[in-house]
Amino acid sequence: MSSGEGTMPGGPIKLLYFDLFARGIPIALALNHSGLEWEGCFCGGGVSSFEGWAELKATLQWRCLPVVEVPDVGPIGQELAILNFLGSLSPTLGGATPIEIATSQQLLAVGEDIYQKITTYSGTRYSKCECGPEEFETFWTATQPTGHNKSFTLKDHFSLVEQFAKRLGYKNKFTASGISVGECKLFFILELTARMSGSVDTIREFPSLYAFYCTFRELKPTLDVLESGGKFPKVPEYYFKTLEVCSDELQAVQNSKKVES
Q1: What is the pLDDT of residue 2?
Q2: How many CA atoms lie within 13 A of 223 on its CB side?
Q3: Do 68 and 37 contact (CB within 8 A), yes or no?
Q4: Are strands 74-77 and 67-70 parallel, antiparallel or unpaired?
Q5: Residue 62 CA to chain centroid, in angstroms?
Q6: How far is residue 72's CA from residue 51's CA, in Å, rounded to a whole number?
Q7: Which of 61, 223, 236, 247 is deepest in the core (most CB within 10 A)?
Q8: How far, rounded to the nearest angstrom, does the alpha carbon of residue 78 sit from its chain's CA centroid?
Q9: pLDDT value of position 148
């Protein structure tokens, strides 16, 4: 969070994450947009190598990545804490006014809500989707906004963000800079869902959200992360499976159950 310039680090910030398109990406986006010096490196040298991870994990405060090493500050873990720290360094990232700070923080929170839902209703390169076929289909395609928050679908969440955008009055952003840490997190969620579904059709259903997505995606620091990995050694590998692959796996489980019964 920020309403004024924080103390700048006395050297490059080092971001450590896995070679995966997941929690490290919003941080890489924020760093790339910030103008701060930073370096990115992958644990174990890449997605196919987790050599040394067990030993490294034991040394980390929260036993997880991402972690940033900040000169004169030390290591900071947990994605949201890292993003908030970066926001404290610059009004561009954290918000230039109390309203912008609140806006960025709300986007950060709802982005995390959606990310948690995505992990529940999808599979990764290391695991299969564990929900049922109907739950899977409902989350990714349906709307049920009058239910309990825990039953909100992807479109329900997007609808709320769309309403939020219209309330703020911007055409294609949520803050004056358009690159607050909350917006970095939100863009990551939108890009992730577009990659998983293979299209932007769902995002396009929400005009303000789609305008933000298109605008943020075309910014040079964003393209740098998406096309070359930013300061990472390369573009991170996909972590989440496509919806088509998840659907096929769920159907295979269903068919197997029918045969067994």
Answers
A1: 53
A2: 5
A3: no
A4: antiparallel
A5: 19
A6: 29
A7: 236
A8: 13
A9: 84
Give the DSSP H/E element, type plus range, for residue 109: helix 98-120
For 44, counting Cβ atoms within 10 Å of its Cβ (0-12 exposed, 13-18 middle, 19+ buried), the class is middle
Q: Which residues of 171-187 are buried (b: 16+ CB within 10 A; e: fewer)?
A: ebbbbebbbbbbbbbbb
Q: Give a three-class secondary structure readout of 21-62.
A: CCCHHHHHHHHHHHCCCEEEEEHHHECCECCCHHHHHHHCCC
- CB distance 76 to 67 below 8 Å: yes
Whole-number pLDDT of residue 4: 53
Instruction: Report pLDDT for 48.
Output: 54
Helix (H) or strand (E) holding 104: helix 98-120
Cβ contacts of residue 59 below 8 Å, gap of 6+? none
Per DSSP, the three-state class of 255 is: helix
On whether the CB atoms of residues 3 and 92 are closer than 8 A, the answer is no
Distances (CA, A) of 23 to 58, 121, 186: 20, 17, 12
Rounded distance between C-alpha atoms, residue 16 and residue 196, angstroms: 24
C-alpha pair distances (Å), 258 with each of 138, 142, 249, 251: 22, 26, 14, 11
Q: Strand, coil or helix: what is 19?
A: coil
* Residue 124 phi, psi (nearest 5): -125, 175
Q: What is the pLDDT of residues 61-118, one digit of tens each?
A: 999 999 999 999 999 999 999 999 999 999 999 999 999 999 999 999 999 999 999 9
